[in-house]
Amino acid sequence: MTMARATTSRRSFLGHSYSLVGVVAALVILAWTLVAILAPYVIPHSIGDIVDDDYFGPMRQGLWLGSDYLGRDMLSRVLMGARYTVGISLAAVSIACFSGVVLGMIAAVTGGWLDTCLSRFLDAMNSIPSKLFGLVVVAAVGSSIPVLILTLAVIYTPGAYRFARALAVNINTMDFITVARVRGESTAYLIGSEILPNIIRPVLADFGLRFVFIVLLLSGLSFLGLGLQPPLADWGALVRENIGGLPFAAPAVIVPSLAIASLTISVNLLIDNLPQKIRDRDA
Amino acid sequence: MKSGVLNLVLKRLGIAAVTLLIVMFAVFFATSMLPGDTASILLGQAATPEAVAGLREAMHLNDPAILRFLRWLLGLLHGDLGTSYANEMPVATLIGGRLLNTMKLAGITTLLSVPLALTLGITAAMLRGSVYDRTVTVLSIGVISVPEFMVATLAVLLFAVYLKWLPALSSVNEAHSLTDLVRIYAMPVITLTFVISAQMIRMTRAAVIETLSTPYVEMALLKGASRSRMVLRHALPNALGPIVNAVALSLSYLVGGVIIVETIFNYPGIAKLMVDAVATRDLPLIQSCAMIFCLGYLFLITAADIVAIMSNPRLR
Fold first, then answer.
1. Which residue has the higher pLDDT, A161 or B235?
2. Domain B94-311 belongs to what topology?
3. N or C: which end of chain B has fewer CB within 10 A?
């Protein structure tokens, strides 16, 4: 363990040591976040404007990432796509983790039939393959941004619940919880002030992983044509609408794929390279 | 002590049965929420209100949802999957051949990916920290981190566009010889193998590494056993449970992968059938396809759990 660790270069900052890979990954994530926030102000062309006479145009000056299947500027579409992919995923993962973690902590503290029922029900939800669930629900109620966010959140809540509950059950057996209980503290106080601070770090790492799953699922749904509807397009939808350019290896189909990969790989690498102290389950 | 294991296994099977019921419930109600009135969709725009009302009555669409659910469940038990709304054919007939195609795809992928992933995972764990191990780890993280359709796109780019070895689309109907068969299955199988193997390699590697760090393996090393003997004779038999568990869990990713892969390669399997059924709002077809997928998935994750229980010597 120590031998493998020692070979990666590490630097010290604020008391933690960070590996170079982790820092680079964090920078990539920061860059995409900035793009997501600033996209409407920096795109060179409106996403609907047809600016190229040719379709699947190559990269050249003015059209830095070529043009798509209708001759629209790819750079603008990818930048705006970041907004949808990052925004929807972030909203979904926040809802999923918040509800999952709160329910998990409540189940661990309360125990009894509430715990059993919640666990049984959410485990059953977990046994529906995520892509299938997304497919059926989006097909059932149609695809819009709020529906997508809620569906993704519902799909990933059971996982967050399971993770948080397992952590909280461990903390729940500690003496300071017993003391707080004897003091007569409420459940809200127990989960908010006693349990949460002790599990927050692994929960945040889990948040990141779940974000990756959601980005992948959202892209998959969009790729099947069940995600964002035209003219809006997230990265998965961009790949789908430009898939016709695949035989000529057009940048229009490669660039959005690379964008997804850069984001998800960065989050994975960042979490893998977090200081052990933060990442560890039983910190 | 043997009864302890049996009890745990039975309990796990019981949980699986309850889960199945909840899942069936969820699938039925999710599909019942499909927008639009099925009867008026079926009859088209020219239908009179009386005809729509009549068809609604005939299809029992006016009954409460719980009654329709029970009727559907009873039909399933009799092997009656219902009739497709779109082309009036029994769902069982529609699914039959397609299911076989998907099973073939999944079977070939399994035969290919399991030995490949186990070899890579175990050797990577043995040579931990080496360049080889790092390459395998980085590649598998890379494949896990990208969507399945991207793996498929890259495979098409590499094998069909640059190397021109294989066709980009597959169609089972044209198979006349062995070479045809290879050309048809190659792209979907390659894509699925990548996706499944990446998961399996990571889990296998983790399982073997955990076993390698136990005191009895260290003991084997100290008594002078060779490195390969240490891994093959001492560590592997004990890591077998976690490895089989990892294999079953990874195979459950086939369910998600197959949906994307069949769509992108236009493979006539059950996932493609379901995606098309969603487009035509063919309720009985969607329900049956969804049930088949959930059943397969549930079977694999239950198998994974049972293997984990059986292989734990502390429970015996």
1. A161
2. MetI-like fold (1.10.3720)
3. N
Q: Which residues on B lie below 8 Å from A264 (Cβ)?
A: 145-146
Q: Is residue A8, in this structure, part of any structural domain at all?
A: no
What ranges do the domains of chain B cover?
A: 94-311
Query: Is the Cβ of A136 closer than 8 Å to some Cβ of chain B?
Result: yes
Interface of A with B in 114-133 (CB under 8 A): 120-121, 123-125, 127-133
What value does the mean pLDDT take over residues B38-51?
Answer: 67
Domain that holds residue A93: 19-282
User: What is the C-alpha separation between B236 and A49, in angstroms, rounded?
Assistant: 60
B 246-305 → A contacts, CB under 8 A? 252, 255-256, 259-260, 263-264, 274-275, 278, 281, 286, 290, 293-294, 297-298, 301
Among positive and negative, which fits the CA dihedral A68, A74, A80, A84?
positive
Say which residue the tokens 């979907």 belong to.
Answer: B188
Cis peptide before A231 (omega within 30 of 0): yes
* Cβ neighbours for A241, distance < 8 A, ≥ 6 positions apart: A68, A69, A230, A233
pTM: 0.81
CATH value at residue A270 = 1.10.3720.10
In a domain, A61, yes or no: yes
Cα B303 → chain centroid:
13
In this prediction, residues A254-267 reach a mean pLDDT of: 87
Give the number of domains in chain A: 1
Whether A10 is in a domain gets the answer no
pLDDT (average), residues B168-180: 59
- A-chain CB neighbours of B291 within 8 Å are none
For this complex, say whether ipTM is above 0.90.
no
| Closest chain A residue to B160, measured at CA | A247
Model confidence pLDDT, tens digit, residues B45-55: 666 777 777 77
